[in-house]
Design goal:
3 domains; 10% strand; seven-stranded mixed β-sheet; transmembrane; 7 strands; alpha/beta; transmembrane helix; 11 helices; 334 residues; membrane
Length: 334
């Protein structure tokens, strides 16, 4: 059972009174400071190592070690502060934003998965500068169908970035969810665990027509999901075979046509990351995967543009990074 407590006005007011721009600026300052501070620390340690333990530690190994110890925490801390500022700004803007009168997209997930969904998407974690979250990328891809809403986690002061949260009492949440399922143009699930989520899955499969259902999750999530949900599904569903060469579990979208036929789409085309940007690299991956569902629902769909500016910045960063590594290796061998 979901134990729902609406955040108190005092706590919410205190959180929203913080300045979003302050936290964003502080986060950017930490990220910008990561490289020079790491370089300064490397130089100091190199001088000490040269005088105390000559030729004991290669300079390149020392540089990477110092960056891991000094630069990485600054990058992670900076990204978290930027996202706090973005959460504050989103909460402030949601108060004054004009109401979207389209039928909503109801986004359902387990409360226990909120922390995981607030981390960068799996395919984008190789980029340390990604500040958007998995939920944020997924939700924005669904906005073309309708405004995305979700039931808020009990006691949270600031909602995560992504779907707009609705807060209801514990005695009312089931009736509210059933009502929203009837109003929604689409009911989208992020597969997880939890009794509340499984109650929602069962209700949706009994109350919502198949073409208005969407499920997202990894191959591991779907294996557990299909084992449990198969009695409620309109037709038998089998998970596609995994890729032969894969460093991580495949992620899929599952939707149904009007006849109840299941359609799986694998998320994992790295080439589509080129259409992303530093903020939302997985957005085009979701957008292309959702195209058949958009067309089925009669929602407008257009291909995301290629962000040439962001690509140029990324290429420039990689040139500087690998150029620095090559220079250190050349100095070390020379």
């Amino acid at each position: 059972m979901r134990q729902q407590q609406t955040p108190s006005p005092e706590r919410t007011s205190t959180a929203l009174s913080d300045r979003p721009n302050f936290w964003r600026a502080l986060g950017i300052a930490l990220i910008v400071a990561a490289l020079p501070l790491s370089g300064a620390a490397t130089a100091v340690l190199a001088i000490l190592a040269e005088s105390l333990w000559p030729e004991a530690v290669p300079s390149s190994a020392l540089a990477w070690g110092v960056f891991a110890a000094v630069g990485s925490p600054l990058l992670v801390g900076g990204i978290r502060l930027i996202n706090k500022g973005r959460q504050l700004r989103a909460a402030l803007e949601s108060v004054s934003a004009p109401e979207d009168t389209r039928p909503p997209v109801l986004y359902l997930r387990a409360f226990g998965d909120d922390a995981k969904l607030a981390s960068p998407p799996q395919l984008a974690q190789i980029n340390p500068f990604v500040i958007s979250t998995r939920e944020e990328n997924f939700v924005e891809a669904l906005q073309g169908i309708g405004p995305v809403i979700a039931i808020g986690r009990p006691g949270e002061v600031l909602p995560p970035l992504g779907a707009r949260r609705l807060y209801v009492d514990d005695a009312e949440w089931q009736a509210r969810v059933i009502g929203l399922m009837g109003q929604a143009r689409l009911v989208a699930f992020m597969i997880g665990t939890g009794s509340g989520l499984w109650w929602e899955v069962e209700q949706a499969l009994h109350r919502v027509t198949p073409e208005r259902l969407l499920f997202c999750g990894s191959s591991r999530d779907f294996t557990a999901f299909l084992n449990r949900a198969h009695p409620w599904l309109p037709r038998p569903v089998s998970l596609p075979p995994p890729r032969r060469l894969s460093l991580a579990p495949s992620e899929y979208l599952l939707h149904f046509d009007t006849d109840g036929q299941a359609h799986f789409t694998r998320l994992g085309n790295p080439a589509l990351l080129l259409r992303g940007n530093l903020r939302k690299p997985m957005l085009p991956v979701y957008q292309f995967a959702l195209r058949p569902l958009f067309e089925q629902l009669g929602a407008p769909w257009s291909a995301p543009p290629i962000p040439w500016k962001a690509l140029a910045i990324s290429v420039g960063f990689l040139i500087v990074l690998f150029g620095g590594i090559g220079l250190m290796a050349w100095l070390e061998t020379g």
